[in-house]
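Sat 14:20. Reprocessing the chain from the morning session after the first attempt stalled halfway. Input below, unchanged.
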Amino acid sequence: MSTAAPESVLSAEDLQRLCDFLYRRTGMSYGEAKRYYIERRVAQRIERSGAHSFDAYMNLLRASPTEAGQLVNSFTVNETYFYREEHQLRCLGRSILPEIVAKRGPGDLVRIWSMPCSSGEEPYSIAIWLLENWPMVDAYNIEIIGSDIDSDALAAALQGEYGERALSRLPPDVAARYFEPPHAGQRSLIEDLRESVRFTEANLVDPASMAAQGRFDVIFCRNVLIYFDEESRRGAARTLFEALEPGGFLLLGHTESMARISDRFTPRRFEDAVVYQRPAT
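Finished this time. Tokens:
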């Protein structure tokens, strides 16, 4: 029998029903090992939604895309900062982009995707790094897109306001060029930089929402596959492969690898990082 109050402990059956819902929506695999983490978040959503029981809340999830989205938002991990895994940004400027534009003409489009992008630090970092370190940045039409399943994170990305901790890896002179002076402990990105990145909602385990973004020359998909089980990882690998232009590059988090997930990508060892390439043919 289902629990009847937010503060009650979920039965094993209730926990499994909720984990199955999250898995279908996000590809993230949860279970008994994460019981406390799950119960705390679902109790908050039950209370805020006004549902009177777990069964009533599950019915609400099926009927309300808005509430389903809010539940997903509460489970996504958005801890990040500017210039995270900086060696990959160096690789982008020193090795990846020169290889891509060698086959392009001046003014041609180059598309870079940050998926998932959380609250925007990663795609904005890409923009800042290229402006600061890639001399050819103005010779091409660089389109940077950040996408995420978490609508709250996307709203924060569009706002472009960050605490000092998020900026701690940026050199002070770089922070001064791209952020307004501190105000109430927050730094706001200058308008020109905010306008250089476009944000969209997309779900890594929903091929239709991924395909709607088009194809990209470079995809940053870091620190999300670690939350997936093997089946979800294989599905994500398929959608990421299809999202790349032939010859395009995929960058994963430093603890992640395509080696045991998919053999469709070609590993490339550059000076600064190991990345994965969709074969050109």
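The chain has two domains: 12-75, 86-277.
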